Amino acid sequence: MRIILAPMEGVVDSEMRAVLTRVGGYERCVTEFVRVTEQIIPNHVYFRYSPELKQGGVTPSGVPVFVQLLGGSTKYMGLNAARLQKLAPPGIDLNFGCPSKTVNRSDGGSALLREPRRVGDIVRAVRDAVDPSIPVTAKIRLGFSNDESLLEIAHNVQEAGANELCIHARTRDDRYKPPAYWHLVKRVRDDLSIPVIINGEIWSPDDAAKAVKQSGCADLMLGRGALTRPDLARHIRADQAYTPMTWLQTIEMMTDYLQRTENKHPLFVSNRAKQWLVFLQMHYPQAKPLFGRIKRLKDAHDVFSILRAHACES
Questions:
Q1: Residue 199 shares a structural domain with residue 225
Q2: Which residues constitute the domain of residue 121?
Q3: Which of 40, 107, 249, 273 has the smallest count of CB within 10 Å of its CB?
Q4: Which entry of 29, 98, 166, 217 is annotated as an active-site residue?
């Protein structure tokens, strides 16, 4: 089984990839999406989304980071992929799954699932634009409002030359509302010859086992579950003797991450700490009172003071 860290906009930046892959269990990461419009994206934008490109395209732990592109222009997706390949990314991923209304109104993400042929055309444009040695992968949902075109979309992705397909087992209209319909992916897995990766509502090792069994997929992608349980990938791989991360270890990881990001902008530390604690509350009961202690804080130094005090108390 391969486990891939999902590309979550505004959540999984390079610093988050660094701390999560250091825990272990991941074969690959994918960046937040780089928005492609009708222009050629300069290199500094790719380096902002994937600083790993300057270190061989891998995290400090050596995990490859694919760069994700999002856009509806066949021409400019191809042109930008050709430009991106000069930076030697380990792979290029294509986003057809983002459910954001803003993104969808701008001809991107899951809005394209309403046009199965165009999904294939975009994949083919990117595949033809880059060297065969660079993997091209795609991420989709079951469909926009329903799964009627799922098989057609999946076959178009494969026939266009994609190396792998990841399916978030919900439609765009489902957004992130549970459940995820893992079983609906099985017919795709049975029909395609390329690897199919299952994604959506995987919060625990038990969820992972059910997702793999119901979908028939050998590999999975972790999204929000990776933030709720930072060692989830390792736990999924482990036998019953595995000892999960303690709350203190989790707080130390959070502090390390926030220290790595302190220079981004004045409110980044406080905002990101609160965001991550919201996720952690789903698994660690200690996260709720800690969130209450920092929810009104804005200054990074105040946040770090609370985190240090909490660690001493834990």
A1: yes
A2: 3-237
A3: 40
A4: 98
